[in-house]
Amino acid sequence: MMQTYAYGFPRLGRNREYKKTIESYWNGKISEDRLLENIYKLEDEILTIYQGSVDKFPVSEMTLYDNMFDMALALGLYSYKDLNDYYQLCRGKNALEMTKWFNTNYHYLVPEIKSPNFNMSWNKPKEALSRCKRGIPYLIGPFTFLKLSKGIDPAEFKNTLLSLAFTYRELIKDFDEVHIDEPAFVMEFEKSEVESIKQAYKIVAAEKRNINLFTYYDSIDFLKDLYDLPIKALGLDFINGKDNLAHIKKGGFPADKTLIAGIVNGKNVWKTDIRQAIDILKQLSQHSKNLIISNASPLYHLPITTKGEDLDKRLLQKLSFAEQRLDELKLIAQAYANRSPGLVRGYGGGYGEDNAGEIRDFGINKTVRERVKNLTEQDFIKDVPYAERAKR
């Protein structure tokens, strides 16, 4: 049966344990040891959910505040003696700037690059593996880290990236497999930056081709260039990145790499159209011999579970939160392996054999659907060219 891979599970906790624990520490109600105990317990619960639902998943996604900030600490940009120092950089007098993560309502702390010199000050994934003993080490990729940081002279971006690549190589050298997120690959940038990415990953993966590289939130404009990277697998978003499928149908996919197909939504709460997901897999299987299925973007944009939600029954029949996304991946893998549409009968969400017409039609605004249906390519073209938008 096709393997499943999930990532980005929300760390909030069923009863908001994450928020409550950290705020209790800030308010002096619990000690640093108790804070870490509670956070590690929450981390273990998430890994247990992963392990019970999917074949592959990352470890070291857990953070005490923000993974971009943790990456900055790992690379030696900031130092701290204890958690009070750590949180001073997050919310105290020395706090870093905070801004939105791509086109989402998720936020991150913006590192400032004052020097092109980096050093591995903290191997967070290795520390997490020693504690948890399971999962694939997780890192935010070097290009995304630099692209979302500030203080870099554009003329020095390439040299800074190549310098950073050596530190990443040191970070991953002891791992048999590693999960690297590069969502910044969906941004618009110059051809020279594509060449810089290729050079950087030759350095990062010089010792091992052990990288599962994930992009998400949109399509990749330079997909064929990514095929040249010395990586093990490439994760692509087939929900928000509609052009990714067209690119693969036109240009194929390399036989020496695994395609990790993001086919369940990590950003909205509506159930997956299982038949549509299987249809995408059938099309991809004509171009890729090695397929794994996954969520299309991190699951931390979703609530944790629909279980216990006090909502209209017709609405609940259409919802799928983070835990349910894992169930969907398992269902899609089973249905695809058996080539049996009967497996998805009764799944609901308005896709096929619902148990009642009122559920199928609930929440549908036909006027809005008609307007969306009539959108043209022109409606998606911005009036201001990219170069001017970037300047602004």
Description:
There is one protein chain. The chain has helices at residues 17-26, 32-53, 67-74, 83-91, 124-132, 142-147, 157-172, 191-204, 223-226, 242-251, 274-285, 313-316, 322-338, 357-361, 366-373, 386-391, and strands at residues 3-5, 58-59, 98-100, 107-109, 136-140, 178-181, 211-214, 233-237, 258-264, 291-295. It is α/β, with parallel strands linked by helices and 392 residues long. The strands form two sheets. The chain has an eight-stranded parallel β-sheet with strand order 1-10-9-8-7-6-5-2. It has a two-stranded antiparallel sheet with strand order 3-4. Strand 9, helix 11 (274-285) and strand 10 form a beta-alpha-beta unit.
Offer a concise description of the structure.
The protein is an alpha/beta fold and 392 residues long.
Number of helices: 16
Return residue spans where pLDDT drops below 50 for at least 5 consecutive residues.
349-356
Distance between the termini: 49 Å
Name the average pLDDT: 93
Residues in helices, as a percent range: 40-55%
| Share of residues in strands | 5-15%
Order of helices and strands: EHHEHHEEHEHHEHEHEHEHEHHHHH
